[in-house]
Amino acid sequence: AQSVSQHNHHVILSEAASLELGCNYSYGGTVNLFWYVQYPGQHLQLLLKYFSGDPLVKGIKGFEAEFIKSKFSFNLRKPSVQWSDTAEYFCAVNARAGGSYIPTFGRGTSLIVHP
Amino acid sequence: DGGITQSPKYLFRKEGQNVTLSCEQNLNHDAMYWYRQDPGQGLRLIYYSQIVNDFQKGDIAEGYSVSREKKESFPLTVTSAQKNPTAFYLCASSPRWMNTEAFFGQGTRLTVV
Fold it and tell me: Rounded to the nearest 5 degrees, what angle is found at the Cα of A36, between the Cα atoms of A102 and B86?
């Protein structure tokens, strides 16, 4: 079965610090990877996704992620965080199920950015 | 506006009572999902449905039931058999045959009192 592991459960940073959140997945076939973000009081929304091609994916609000197939990783990065990046971040993979795709999530990382 | 609507936003239930959470979407998606979100545990799949009149158990289906009588609607019932029902519940949808992202509602916070 496909699974997703996120290594950092709680991260606290000051504004302008760099961010990297780890994500590893287990799946032997073609994989599509996602990062979702949940801002306080808001619904879960897509931050970025990787399907194929350039392994460096750029998303909204200056976030990017790098797909490293040999390491089964899809780490999220941002060079300089802002207070408004305070949120919960989820890495996800779509697991195959009878021809359909079921979103499967990691445990999430709570990011707090101090002004 | 296309999207997913969950209601109510907050729900209180007495122990031993069943309660139904509503989820409606107007995105014309075939697939719909229910997740439970607990601190430090991420999103765990309760049930999913890929087509009308069909649904499958997810990883933590015990104590829950669903129905899918219409494409737009996928209500979740939390029964009295669910031992620890207090949680945040998220409904999502996606196109069935496309390996793409899911779209989420605002969630329902259920508290058992």
Answer: 75
Per-residue pLDDT band for A28 (boundaries 50, 70, 90) equals low
Strand partners, A87: A111
pLDDT tens-digit readout, B62-109:
999 999 999 999 999 999 989 999 999 999 999 877 778 999 999 999
What amino acid is encoded at B111 in this protein? T
Residues of A in contact with B91 (CB under 8 A): none
- Rg (chain B; Cα; Å): 13
In terms of Cβ atoms closer than 10 Å to its own Cβ (0-12, 13-18, 19+), residue B96 is middle
- Greatest CA separation for chain B: 41
| Cβ pair A49:B101 closer than 8 A | yes
For A11, the enclosing helix (H) or strand (E) is: strand A10-14
Q: What single DSSP character describes residue B1?
A: -
Spatial neighbors of A16 by CB under 8 A, at least 6 apart, are: A80, A81
Residues A102, B45: C-beta atoms closer than 8 Å:
yes
**Which pair of tokens denotes residue A75?**
């780490």
